[in-house]
Amino acid sequence: MKKFIQYLDTYKENENIQSIEYISILDQININYLHYKLSSNQQIYNPLSNYSLWQNQHDYTFLFDQNISSLSKKPKEYKEINVEIQNIQDLLNIIETYPLDETIQYNIDINMLHSIHNELHELNDMIGLSAFKNQVIDQILYFIQNLHIGKIGDYKHTVLFGPPGTGKTEIAKLIGKMYAKLGILQNSTFQKVTRSDLIAGYLGQTAMKTQKVIEKSLGGVLFIDEAYSLADINQNDSFSRECIDTLCEALSEYKDNWMVIIAGYEDEIKQQLFKANPGLESRFIWRFTLDPYDSKEMFSIFKKKVEKNEWSFNSLDSTIGEKWFQLNKDSLPYFGRDIEALFTYTKIAHGRRIFGKGDEKKNLTLEDLEKGFDTFKRFSKNKKKESVIYSMYC
């Protein structure tokens, strides 16, 4: 009994008892108390039955941790992570080298890094975009160290500069998922909108329409693709001005609980959108540039689409493929978007070539690619003509 009392004295000085331990002790004490108090002069052998007496003598109330651990909890082992981060792979290496372990205390929040493991992998596996991948590291390291927390919160609003087909929507979704998991955003809501989703046909309705979109996306990400289209280049469109003014005010009002990501060509966003409201530009502090893909990267994107769809092109090696895209990349100005269409037309051409030849099914050749490309070019020309006609009457 003396040993038990001594242990509790020592425990009091060194450890907070865990909630699950306290509940177990009290449960056992109550059982023992009722059993021995109501029994005839039995000697008490169970040391837990003297706990109430000990508590009264020591006038001490235990504090409780939320985590469950053993009664003889050991001090955590301390490990310092001191790695210079050059790229996303360095972050992935930290995650793989330093596992989550309740017995280890790290000098960084390893839990945060582990929470975005899948998103970092997905981002790292994206083809090209080396400049963006290098830039986004700054944003990740800033937020996981809670450097954004203070009396005055920081803006999270972000610009993605780049031409169509460079993965802006996919990247915006990844950013949203990462920051929801890190607790920077309250939820993983992702709402993609364009001009038509924000601007109404009558004056006064645009502010209401824009505000509804804003409220629906609060706590998550509002992604505005081709954001420069919100502004009138001549600054004479009162509907555009109403939308931009409403958006600009909301960017400040909800900055602690909202991320707006706008995307489009750099020159158009700077010359059209940011000039439409003097306060707009300063609210987008994070700016990333998505460089156009080179011919090697374009072939890699095509190859990735082929393999993802469980097709193959055994007769089309890397040298031939890269050379082909080098010769024809100017006809694919929308990069990933055009490559997806090219893959579809190539499959259609393949279907005609292998009719009755089942052994070659889903194995693309250079001939398939060339004929698919011919169809793609015909479609692209018709599309351009339609665009010209439309612009003449609108």
Automatic annotation (TrEMBL):
Residues 154-292 form the AAA+ ATPase domain. It comes from viral metagenome. Belongs to the CbxX/CfxQ family. Coiled coil: none annotated. One of its GO terms (molecular function) is ATP hydrolysis activity. Pfam families: AAA (PF00004). InterPro entries: AAA+_ATPase, ATPase_AAA_core, CbxX/CfxQ, CbxX/CfxQ_RuBisCO_ESX, P-loop_NTPase. This is AAA+ ATPase domain-containing protein. Keywords: ATP-binding, Nucleotide-binding.
